[in-house]
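User: What would this chain look like folded?
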Amino acid sequence: MGILILQYLTGGAWGVVIRRIAEAGSRTIWFVALLFLPIMAGISIIYPWAVYPTEKIVEWRHIYLNPTSFGLRAILYFAIWFVMSYLLNKWSAQQDTADNPEDAAKFLGNATAFSGPTMVVFALVVSFAAIDWVMTLDIHWFSTIWGFLYLIGWGLSAFAFIIALLANLIDKEPFNRVLGKKHFHDIGKLMLACVMVWTYFNLSQFLIIYSGNIPEETPWYLARMKNGWQYVGLLLILFHFAFPFLILLSRDIKRNSKWLSSLAIFILVMRLIDMYYHIGPQPFVGHVHEYNAFNPSWLDFAAPIAVGGLWLWWFFGELKKRPLLPPKDPFVENAIKHGQGH
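Assistant: Here's the prediction, encoded as structure tokens.
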């Protein structure tokens, strides 16, 4: 969704070649909402605050953190995302069936004008969703940069997925006439930017908490510096930042679809590990400073494969519903010329 909004705001040749992929992804919002239902059903198992509201710190936050308000906010988040997706996809479809260039430009203008304020709303909704769904797993810990960390993390995942998909579509109509090295170079630069910003946010969060040395904040990192989690953290430093950062500095690699797509798939794997690093170490109920050790089970591997497989099945069904390029978009011609350049 965020990439769809971003490409409308910025325009250009890179945006039009990924628009239909981003649109198909945005149309899976309601399906993702269905996948969220098991979380609501197991809220008392996942979130300690849903079971022990009498704990002193939860008493003060019980108005915000209780199963009812949690569920209502989740409905609100998905509803906002659905409205954004519906309107942007509606105007895109109307552009495809426009009778003349003026009408097509009008529908494109509607989407562009809508995307300005929508980007702000989208960033806020993602921030609150990340706080509700992930940060509150540890009721005693908080971070003011958490929402933006997830916003850039989702953006990095989206660009990596788009690159991997485009590399597999480059020999198929209509991308075999449009996609070129410059397109991959452009999106590769955006992926590099996301890697750098993700690192900046993580480092900023660590330095602020380290320098503050407040008892409410430090246990989150202390738990990830022992019991096997320190190796996961080192893995992220080396292979979520250092390795892709150094590789993406190469202009040749960013312009090579096969190399870039291989790196994109690698980054997607690291994104899963990053999520596991956030979710895995959780405090034992009643023991604020005691966290579980790194002890992955087969479910930790099966769950993302199962959920990801269901989502991909739905995504590709949505992708087939519309042409891979918007036929009446004025940027298509620029995209073709851009792809033919050196």
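The two ends are 30 Å apart (CA to CA). If you want, I can go into more detail on any region.
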